[in-house]
Automatic annotation (TrEMBL), chain A:
This is Class-I fumarase family protein. GO terms for molecular function: 4 iron, 4 sulfur cluster binding; lyase activity; metal ion binding. NCBIfam families: ttdA_fumA_fumB (TIGR00722). Belongs to the class-I fumarase family. InterPro entries: Fe-S_hydro-lyase_TtdA-typ_cat. Keywords: 4Fe-4S, Iron, Iron-sulfur, Lyase, Metal-binding.
From TrEMBL, chain B:
GO terms for molecular function: hydro-lyase activity. Belongs to the class-I fumarase family. This is Class-I fumarase family protein. Keywords: Lyase. InterPro entries: Fe-S_hydro-lyase_TtdB-typ_cat, Fe-S_hydroAse_TtdB_cat_sf.
Amino acid sequence: MEHLKEPLIELIRLAATNLPPDVEKALRQALEREEPGSAARGALETILKNVELARKRSTPICQDTGTPIFYVYHPEGWSTRKLRQVIEEAVAEATKRSYLRPNSVDSLTEKNTGNNLGDEHFPTIHFEEVDGDTLTVDLMLKGGGCENVGAQYSLPGRVGGGVPAGRDLEGVRRVVLDAVHKAQGQGCSPGILGVAIGGDRGSGYYASKEVLFNELDNPNPDPELEKLEERITEEANQLGIGPMGFGGNTTVLDTKITGLHRLPASFFVTVSYMCWAYRRRRMIWKDGTAVYK
Amino acid sequence: MKKVQIPISDDVVRSLKVGDPLALSGVMVTARDAGHKWLIDTFVTRKREPQGDDLEVYEALKKLLNGGVIYHCGPVVAGLDTREYRFVAAGPTTSIREEPYQGDIMRHFNVKGVIGKGGMGAKTLQACQEVPGLYLHAVGGAATWIAQTVKRVLGVYKLEFGVPEAFWVIEVEDFPVVVTMDANGNSLHAEIEARSAKVLENLLTGEKS
C-alpha cells in the first residue's frame, strides 16, 4: 500500500488548495447577482481572488482545513486496515507540508496531536467494498464553522416562531429553511446544503455529508426531490442573509437531498451545511495510476 | 476603503460605522477559544492561579492589546521546525464562540478591535459602546488572500495550546475588513437576523406549492 502514499498526499493537496470547477462556477454566478459596490459583492470578489491565489500558490484556500473525511471504495480483497494506515501516513505528511492545519485535539486533555491523527475517528474514514478492480477515494475537508451550524430535526416538530413541521416534504422544507436562518453567515455563506430525510440519527448525518459529493450541476434522480431542492435554494436566497451574512441575494449556492429508509416511529431531517469553500476531490486508482476529479 | 493604523484611537473608533470597509495596518494578536478562556480564568475572574510563564505572557499581551486588535484566527503556519514562522493561510474563525468572554476581555485590556466572522452578540455590542471598540468582519475562508497581508510573524505565545489556538503576534499591512458592529450600538448581524426572521416567518406560513 506504500505506493499509494504520494498519490493520496496529492489528493489532499488538491482538495485543500483547489476548489472544484463546479463550485467556482457557482460562486462566479453568485457574484453577478449581487449589487455592484455592495459588501456582498465585495466578499465574493475576495473569495474568488482567494481561490485563484490559493491554486496558484498551492496553499490552503481556508486556514481551517477541517476534518478530513474519506470515503474509500475498494475492490474485493483489499485490506482496509492497511488502507487506513497509508491514509493516516498521507494525512500526517500533508500536515507537515502545510496543506493541512494540525486540527486533531483530544477532547479531554485538549492536547493537539500536531499531525491530524487522533483516535479511529480522526481522520474520518468510511470503507465500502465495490465490484471491479478500481480504487476510488473521495475526500471532503469540512471546516468547523460550517460543521457547527449543521442540524438535525425530529419530526413532527415546530420551527421559527412555532410553525408546525409535519412528517412530509413540506415539513422538510420548513426545517431546512429554519436551519439556514439559524446559520446566518456563520457557516461561511453562500453555503451548500446536504439534506438527508429519514435514517437514524447517525446514518442521517452520514448520508447528509455523502450527498454533498454530488456535483452541483447534477440533477437529483428523483424529480420530486429535484423540485424541492430548487425550491429550498430559491427560498433560502429570499432570506437575504447573503455572502458572509452581509445581506444580499445569495445565501446558498445549491441544495442536495437524499432519502433514506427509516423506522416507522422516526422521521429525522438532517442538514449538513457546507461552506462556500466546498473542498472535495476524488482519486481514481487503476492499473497503478491515479486520476483526480 | 479607509486606512486605519493599529493601535486605534478612540476618536477613530467613534468615527467608524457599520458598513465601512477598512484596511488595517500595524500589529495584532490572534486568539481563539483556548486563549480567551485562559485570559478570563487567569486574569479577569482569577478563577485559576497563574503558573509557568503565565504572568510573563500576560504582561506582553497587555502592551499589545492596549488600543490593539484581537484576531479570531487559527492559522496554517509554516516554519514550525526552525521557528522561522510564516503564515500560509489565515482567514477568520467563527467569532460567536467567544461571546461569553469577549466583552470582558475588551474592557480589561482596552481592546479597540475584534476581527472575526459571523458577528457577535449583545454582550460584545455593549462592550463596543463602553470601551469604545469595533467588531470587524473579515471574509471567511479567504485564507490565502488574507495571509498575504501578514508581513511578518513577530512571535508566538502559548504554542502549547496548539498551532490554531496559540497567540500569534503578527504585523499586517492593509488587512481588509468591514465594520459590522460599531461603537454606537449598531450591528449589521442583528439587523440581518431580524430582517431574515420576518421573511422566514412568511415562507413557513405561506401557501403550500
